Amino acid sequence: MRGLLFVHFPFFTVGALTELRLKRQTEHFSHHPSVACKQSGFTLLELLVVITLLGLVAGAVVLGYEGVQDQGREDVTRFEMAEIRKALLQFRRDSGSNDFPGQGIYDCSDSVNGGSDTDANTAMTFPAEAGSTDAEKIAWCESPTNFWMLFTDPIGDGWDKDRKRGWNGPYIQRKNSLLANGAWGILDPYQEPYEIQGLDDDETARLVSRGAGSGDKTLFLLR
Question: How much is the pTM?
Answer without folding.
Answer: 0.70
